[in-house]
Amino acid sequence: MSGREHHYGTTVTWMGNQGSGTAGYKAYSRDLEIAAPGKPPIPGSSDPAFRGDPARYNPEDMLVASLSACHMLWYLHLCAVNGVTVTAYTDEAAGTMAEDSSGGGRFTDVVLRPRATLAPGSDRAKAMALHHEAHEKCFIANSVNFPVRVEAQITVES
């Protein structure tokens, strides 16, 4: 490591007091707001399986999205510095979380399914290899204790 540190801060505010606080399991909403200085707020909640609002992002959504976004940003950077021109990119990532008998749980895996479209004449093999390098460099993937698999697809425009 280069020895440099980067620091991040957010404020998470619970918005779910419906008059009696947490007087009972069903007495409160799981709604929350995630904020960081100078950025728009993110509406959050728990997973609908845990009485959350399905219209809001839950922590599990955010973890899968963080892994996907980190991989994409590294991949685009590596393509740019290696002469591979990406013209479109999408990822339909999916994560699996397993509950244990105590009601807790953990993620067991995440699968990233990036689909990159390359400009005509781009090196498809190099573009595929850069997914491996992006995965190795991703800060978020290097920070989790479960497997993160990458099932990439590359298309070259004709």
UniProtKB/TrEMBL annotation:
Organism this protein belongs to: Azospirillum brasilense
InterPro entries (alphabetical): KH_dom-like_a/b, OsmC/Ohr_fam, OsmC/Ohrsf, OsmC_Ohr_Peroxiredoxin
Organism placement in taxonomy: Bacteria, Pseudomonadati, Pseudomonadota, Alphaproteobacteria, Rhodospirillales
Highest rank taxon of the organism: Bacteria
Protein name: OsmC family peroxiredoxin
